[in-house]
Amino acid sequence: MHSRAILATLVVLALLLALPWLLPQFLPANQAQFWTANILGRAIVFGIIAMSLTFLATYGGFISLAQMMVAGVAGYTLAIFVDGALPRIVGGWGYAAAIPLSLVAATVMGLVVGAISVRTRDIYLLMITLALAMGVFRFIETNIAWFNGYEGIRNVVGPTLFGLDFRNAFVFYHVALGTAAALFLGILYLVKTPFGLVLQGIRDNPRRVAALGYSVGLHRIAAFGVAGFIAGCGGVLSTIYNIGISPGSIGLGATVNILIMSVVGGLGHPAGAFIGSLIFTVFDTFAATIYDRDRFNTLIGLVFLVIVLVSPDGAIGIGAKLRRLLGAGRNHPRGAEGSRASQQQAGEETTP
Amino acid sequence: MTAPAIRLRGVSRRFGALQALRDVSFDVMPGERRAVLGPNGAGKTTLFNTICGDFPPTSGSIELFDRDITRLRPHERTRLGIGRTYQTSLLFNGLSVLENLFIAVRGVRPNRFSFLRPSAGDGGMAKARDLADRMRLSHLIDAEVVNLSHGQRRQLEVGMAMAGDPRVLMLDEPAAGLSPGDRPELLRLLRELPRTLTLVLIEHDMDIALPAADIVTVMKDGEVVVEAPPDRIEDDPVVQAIYLGDGH
Predict the structure, then answer these.
(1) What is A37-350's CATH topology?
(2) Nearest neighbour of B116 by CB, restricted to A193, A209, A339
(3) ipTM of the shown complex
(4) A204, B91 in Cβ contact below 8 A?
(5) Which residues 157-196 of chain A have a CB within 8 Å of chain B?
(6) Which CATH superfamily is domain B6-244 in?
(7) Res B2: pLDDT
(8) Model confidence pLDDT, tens digit, residues B210-221
(9) Which key words tag this protein in UniProt (chain B) (predicted)?
(10) Which residues have CB under 8 Å from B202's CB, separation 6+?
(11) For chain B, which end, N or C, has fewer CB atoms within 10 Å of the first or last residue's CB respectively?
């Protein structure tokens, strides 16, 4: 990372860390708590799941619609195994054991999605990942003995960490923020490792990657495994945030919401996932108040349409454009642009 | 007796109704410089793609130093010692010159799959820098590849093909699109390649192909029609008929 990018990341992180203390200076106490838990906390949790999609898209050129399902696998694993969840399916596990198990389950599901879709790309990858997501959704919905049908599993209240209760909005917010920051920095580290560079090579030119001695399939599957782990972290936090999980949280609507967050935020950089998630959460929460309760989806749709039309690279692309206009120089969200240019080139190459 | 670096026996490749390669057989000996010439559609690039594993032959066999590689996948062939470039540069546009070369160096090493960043003293990184130097790209080492000129991209292509220390280097029209000023530099690069390396070259430009080659294979309609040293190629009546027409 460039020193300016590191500085910007640290400033944003410090601001986000301090926000729960800053908000009460400007808002009444109950509203400050509402913003901390229901807007920012929720945006971070769904931002993590969206970031798993953005990671695959930015660095691998793969758009996967299975990420919400993978998050749901982590959530259901936690709810099935952890002590205190209702109804008790397996139970008896503490959070210290059930959370790692959930992350392993999500990573394995990510690897399975990667292995099944390994030979597909573009629209076919979208379709196969959507089919997998809907298949798992239906399986969970109809298998009442293991997943308790429509009702799902409740009372997943979260652990107590060093004497701090997860149900406390401040505690949950900071745990979610810490997790998101660790995953975000982890991605920035990973993309400069041999694995990350080869993944970007696959995005730009899979044929050349193979000609250099790499197994494209192995790297693709591993990338889906990494994305599965990231989505799993979001799935665990989302289940604790919602005090449980039901099939609706991994259905088609939820799947599309994650895609909208990623696209609105921008697929050129992992930070776009959090920006998109915040925009989505704000409009999802307040659209009914601002406009008309029955037509709030129209307002949300219009806002997203405007963002995508103004900047095909999403909200993060607007930021980059503004910086260029202000003469701050060119910055590096090169994933989307690079990927488009190279996909075009790859298309030309594969034409017989 | 020394085994050929590449041995093709009856290699054919069909795409539906199109017979792109027809019963191609020849040997390329270790250290040999072989140029493959022919008009557009002669099957030269198809031959390259078949040897490198982009698609298997419909019939026939391919051996690399006595090892049958006919059914191996491209990355497996690369690990056995084949390096190649493409007719149109296939580079990683979103990465820097150094990153492109580093990936290329790591591709044939056992530690190619790693979740750890290379250390400051990493041998692969040192070799990537050395390659950039040899390809006259060291001043652009941190530049994004998307910003390179066409000539620099071709140089990087050759560097990446060389990065895995191949035993056989296959260059598909390395001079394509180069300005006249860049061509002598390419010829110099080709002549500086070590003699331990076997070179197979597709090239339309006779001024590049003939000085660089020991033997020339001329193809037409998917078949080998002439195989001769460069000094006999320009006067060969079959070659003249192919390039100048029957009525010359």
Answers:
(1) ABC transporter involved in vitamin B12 uptake, BtuC (1.10.3470)
(2) A193
(3) 0.84
(4) yes
(5) 189-190, 192-195
(6) P-loop containing nucleotide triphosphate hydrolases (3.40.50.300)
(7) 83
(8) 888 899 999 999
(9) ATP-binding, Nucleotide-binding, Transport
(10) B35, B36, B37, B44, B45, B48, B87, B171, B172, B173
(11) N
